[in-house]
Amino acid sequence: MDLSAVGRAVLIAREGRRLEAYRDSVGVWTIGIGHTAAAGPPLPRAGLRIEAGEADAIFTRDVAAFVRTVAETVPEPLPQHAFDALVSLCFNIGPAAFRRSTVLRRLRAGDWAGAGEAILMWNRPAAIIPRRQGEFDQFRTPYETALPRARRGDAQLVAAPVERPSSPSRARPGWRARLWDWLRAGR
Question: Is 56 a catalytic residue?
Answer without folding.
Answer: no
